Automatic annotation (TrEMBL):
Domain of life: Bacteria
All residue ranges annotated as the ATP synthase F1 complex delta/epsilon subunit N-terminal domain in the record: 1-77
InterPro entries documented for this protein: ATP_synth_F1_dsu/esu (IPR001469), ATP_synth_F1_dsu/esu_N (IPR020546), ATPsynth_dsu/esu_N (IPR036771)
Keywords linked to the UniProt accession: ATP synthesis, CF(1), Ion transport, Membrane, Transport
Main location: membrane
Gene Ontology MF terms in the entry: proton-transporting ATP synthase activity, rotational mechanism
Name listed for the protein in its UniProt record: F0F1 ATP synthase subunit epsilon
Keyword Secreted among record annotations: no
Topology in membrane: Peripheral membrane protein
Species of origin: Candidatus Cardinium hertigii
Subcellular location: Endomembrane system
UniProt function note: Produces ATP from ADP in the presence of a proton gradient across the membrane.
Length: 80
């Protein structure tokens, strides 16, 4: 899967990932390979993603995510 995380003014992460956990408005949800196409608003919380076995995370205030054909695009306001 390919993940792109962008703030409103700059990119935060782009690369291949094994899985992603997003802070959805109705609660966190995990995205794995071949996830159903989805558009979701995001609440304050952590975006966590795995690159091979290494976990990384980014704290956000809010945002939106689009998931289609193993491409995950997140536009968010990071917590600073």
């Amino acid at each position: 899967m390919h993940l792109s995380i962008m703030a409103f003014s700059h990119g935060l992460f782009k690369g291949k990932v094994n899985r992603v956990t997003l802070p959805g408005e109705l609660g966190p949800f995990q995205v794995l390979a071949n996830h159903a196409p989805t558009i979701s608003s995001l609440a304050a919380g952590k975006i966590t993603y795995a690159v091979e076995s290494a976990l990384s995370s980014i704290e956000i205030k809010s945002g939106f995510a689009s998931i289609v054909h193993n491409q995950i695009t997140v536009v968010c306001e990071p917590l600073v």
